[in-house]
Amino acid sequence: MAEYRIPLQYRKMENLHIVFWLLKDIGWCMIWKPLGIVMIFPTLVISIVIAYRTRELFSELIHNLAITFWITANSYWMISEFLGFDSLHVYHDFTFKHLSIIPFLTGLGCLLYYYVIWQPRHPNELDTL
């Protein structure tokens, strides 16, 4: 059975990432705009660093990219609410808040590509943990 090990330094960064992500979402939930907006930067930067560091293992890279797109969508949605343009209409009933669907679907597209196309074509590679 193959084994995937995470260096302690990387694990500490991932754990800190969770703290930043929670602080961002607490800021959003409690409408603490400065906290929510400030926490976007470390949350997003660390998710990009984590994705970069896992680039050798395609399954990890894809899942970490999906997380980065999720954080991007989530952050845009939060900003649209904080700055009050979330309910402005872009087209018919489609509002600016709904534009967050673009990074959400991009992340989902990454995962669909991995599970539907890549993984079936590479059955002998380490792809699940």
Question: Would you mind describing this structure in some detail?
Answer:
Helices cover about 70% and strands about 5% of the residues. By secondary structure, it is mainly α. It has one domain. A hairpin with a 2-residue loop joins strand 1 and strand 2. Helix 1 runs antiparallel to helix 2. It is flat, with a radius of gyration of 17 Å. The N and C termini lie close together (about 10 Å). Keywords: Membrane, Transmembrane, Transmembrane helix.
SSE map:
Layout: H1 8-29, H2 33-53, H3 58-82, E1 89-91, E2 94-95, H4 101-121
State the main characteristics.
2 strands, mainly alpha, single chain, 129 residues, two-stranded antiparallel sheet, 69% helix
Compact description:
69% of the residues lie in helices and 4% in strands. It has 129 residues and is mainly α.
Helix content: 55-70%
Strand order, largest beta sheet: 1-2
The overall pLDDT average reads: 93
Share in β-strands: under 5%
Compute the number of structural domains. 1
Order of helices and strands: HHHEEH
- Distance between the amino and carboxyl termini: 10 Å
> What profile does the largest beta sheet have?
2 strands, antiparallel
* Rg computed from alpha carbons, rounded to a whole number of angstroms: 17 Å
Low-confidence stretches: none
Describe the global form: flat
How would you name the oligomeric state of the polypeptide chains in this document? single chain
Helical segment tally? 4
Helix and strand composition category:
mainly alpha
User: Count the strands?
Assistant: 2
